[in-house]
Amino acid sequence: MDYEIVSFRLSAGSYMKVLASAGKPSFMDELVDNPKSRQRSVLIARTVERVNKNGLDWARSSHTLKTITADLSVFELRVPGKVIRVMTYVHEGRVPVYLFDFDGHQGKNGKLPPSLMKRAEALARIAFECMKRENEDER
Length: 139
Hints:
The chain is of the alpha+beta class. About 40% of the residues lie in helices and about 30% in strands. It is built from four helices and six strands; from the N terminus they run ββαααββββα. A six-stranded mixed β-sheet has the order 1-2-6-5-4-3. The longest helix has 25 residues, at about 115-139.
């Protein structure tokens, strides 16, 4: 399956990069289009806008972005006061690419299930390749 990085508009002049299957809606588009999950998309968008405004250093120090795997730059974006999480790849330490949403607090120990980690790592590698391709196309 082919993937691409798409821009999802948050507000006037503010966007987030999202990994999506080529030609298909991103997870954010799907959340917005479903009346049952629209509020979830608003909360995610609000959190991403705070990251865009305040920067990645702030996001890490405020625990809005929590490191999952340092070697792949995979992070968990945490929506304050909610169980909503977004798996995030940070390209070259500067550009967040949002991969998929999920609910945190899974189980007693709070650890992420291996299947979720496997999916995050696979999609982070794909996001890396897409960003690399995008950067080469800009040259």
